[in-house]
Structures are given as structure tokens and as C-alpha cells.
Design brief:
Elements: H1 42-50, E1 59-61, E2 64-67, E3 71-73, H2 75-81, E4 98-99, E5 109-116, H3 121-136, E6 142-147, E7 155-160, E8 164-165, E9 168-169, E10 172-173, E11 188-191, H4 202-216, H5 236-242, E12 258-259, H6 286-296
Parallel strand pairs: 5-6, 5-7, 7-11
Antiparallel strand pairs: 1-2, 2-3, 4-12, 8-9, 10-11
Helix pairs in contact: 1-5, 3-4
Length: about 300
């Protein structure tokens, strides 16, 4: 099953942050509201931390657990976390580009993307076209093509009123990661009440869409090992340490967290796959391009 996702960055420790996959604007499923959230038990928080996700602000919601403001995990996924722990802590750097276990297969391949955002279609289409152009400029074996909403698509980008969580507007939810058959995750849901045709920052919105497409084709957050870097969340390992729990194993969240060779050891503030950002436009950095080519060149 797929995990659902979203983004914010260091400046995000202050109050009003927006971005691609925003921490502040926690993502839940389209039908989710704060009315059906509940606090987690300590045992549930430990399961989340053992899986490599920060339990900060985590909550029980309809359909699973809302983690890090942008990831919806099912009970089945959480049950599998302890079986899939990987010993990343013993060797290697802690903040690099990471991929999930599966990536999109049958290369070279054209991934068709359809947009259905209701009255927000003009904005969504413009931002999606920019995101697609950024990927296609990389010269990968994976290329993207926007198709009409009536056409069968590999990834659907949907506009919905996603409501609020903790008093913050929910900007979006991604469908997670590719499946074992090599298909990209779908759909990506974005808030068409916030991202309406009066929203003017098309480039920043394109970054949001590019980030969610990144998850859909197999990229995990580039600060996967320490969400405290970009989001201000208590790192999962610090949470476990305070409880006296052995944490030498790094969890893969049930979907894998495999280091991509030749990506940097140190955090990169402008990466398109940071868990959180400062709400600005972030085209691919040189290291982002390396990560994309490692997977899909």
C-alpha cells in the first residue's frame, strides 16, 4: 500500500509557512478534518519513531496515522515497519538523497499526468506544465506528458477542499511511492480552495507539484534521517533516546530508504525533496539532478 505525503524549511520553525509538502499545512486525506483526529498513545508514537518518522504532531485519523504533517500511513504499513528496519545508522551519512525500494519501471517510459482541479484548472495546469518541463529538461528515460482529464493517466493531480488540521490549511497530499509493479503512485491531491485562480505564485506551486511527483516516482525526503533539519520536528532517534530505546536501526517507513550514490553528505537547503521548505520556488539543484539521473538516466 502507498503512504500519503506533502512539505516546509528551517525558517519554518516560525509560524506561517507555506510550501511544497508543507509541515505547517499538514496533509490528510480529502475527507479528513480536525474533527476526526485523535492523539496517539506512547506505543503508537514509538512504532512511528522506530519506522524512521518523527512522532511530532502525529495523530490518528480516518484511514490511518497522519505523520509529519504530510504522510498518511495505514495500520497495515505500521504493522510492517518493525519487519523492515534497516541498519543505516551504523554506516554512512545521514542527510542525502534517498529513494524508495521501488522505482518506476519499463524504461524508457512516458508518464501521463492528468489534472482535474475544478475551477482551479487554469492554475493547476500552468503549474503542472512547469513541473513537467523541469523533469523533461533533465534528459531522463522517464519523461512526463500532461493529458486531458478524460484520458487514462498514470498520475492524477486532483484539486479538492482538503480542510484544516490543527488550525492550519491543508495544502496537499501525495499518494506515496511506486508499487512493486513499477507504477508511479497516484493520485496527488492539492487544495483548490487555497490554490485557486487568485493564487499568483505559479512557480512556487510548480515546486510543490514537482515535489509530490518526486514521491510518486520513488524519492523520499532528502533530509529523511533528520526531519529536524528542515521542519523543526523532534528527530525520531532523539525521541527514542529519551525513552531509553535502542535506535541503532534506521527504519525505511515500509517503503525503503536507499541512499542514492554521489549525492551530498551535508544537507542542501534548496533541494526540491526537503521534507520542508521556506515556501519559495526551488528548481532542481545540481545534486537533485544527480539524484534524478542516478535513478532514471
Amino acid at each position: 500500500m502507498s503512504a500519503l505525503k506533502q512539505i516546509v524549511f528551517p525558517l519554518c520553525c516560525t509560524a506561517a509557512l507555506l510550501s511544497a509538502c508543507n509541515k505547517k499545512d499538514a496533509a490528510v486525506s480529502g475527507s479528513e478534518t480536525t474533527a476526526n483526529k485523535s492523539e496517539l498513545t506512547l506505543d503508537q508514537q514509538i512504532v512511528i519513531a522506530r519506522a524512521g518518522f518523527s512522532p511530532t504532531y502525529a495523530a490518528k485519523v480516518n484511514g490511518g496515522y497522519l505523520v509529519e504533517g504530510d504522510i498518511l500511513l495505514s495500520d497495515a504499513q505500521l504493522a510492517g515497519f518493525t519487519r523492515e528496519l534497516q541498519a543505516f545508522r551504523k554506516a554512512g551519512p545521514i542527510t542525502e538523497q534517498y529513494q524508495s525500494t521501488y522505482k518506476v519501471g519499463s524504461l524508457p517510459r512516458i508518464v501521463r499526468i492528468a489534472v482535474d482541479a475544478g475551477t482551479s484548472d487554469p492554475l493547476f495546469i500552468a503549474a503542472t506544465d512547469i513541473a513537467i518541463a523541469r523533469y523533461n529538461a533533465q534528459g531522463l528515460q522517464l519523461t512526463f506528458q500532461r493529458v486531458d482529464k478524460a484520458v487514462a493517466a498514470d498520475i492524477k493531480i486532483l484539486g479538492e477542499d482538503l480542510g484544516t488540521s490543527g488550525g492550519s490549511t491543508i495544502l496537499g497530499v501525495s499518494a506515496g511511492f511506486p508499487d512493486s509493479a513499477g507504477n508511479p503512485a497516484t493520485p496527488i491531491k492539492l487544495n483548490n480552495k487555497y490554490y485557486s485562480n487568485t493564487y499568483k505564485d505559479t512557480l512556487t506551486f510548480a515546486t510543490t507539484i514537482a515535489h509530490e511527483i518526486g514521491h510518486a516516482i520513488g524519492f523520499r525526503h532528502s533530509d529523511y534521517m533528520n526531519r529536524g533539519y528542515s521542519c523543526g520536528y523532534t528527530p525520531w532517534n532523539d525521541f527514542l533516546k529519551k525513552l531509553g530505546i535502542d535506535n541503532y536501526n534506521e527504519g525505511d517507513g515500509g517503503v525503503g530508504a536507499i541512499h542514492i550514490p554521489n549525492t551530498p553528505v551535508d544537507p542542501e537547503a534548496r533541494s526540491w525533496m526537503l521534507a520542508c521548505s521556506d515556501g519559495t520556488d526551488r528548481p532542481f539543484t545540481a545534486n537533485d539532478s544527480i539524484a534524478l539521473r542516478q535513478l532514471y538516466h
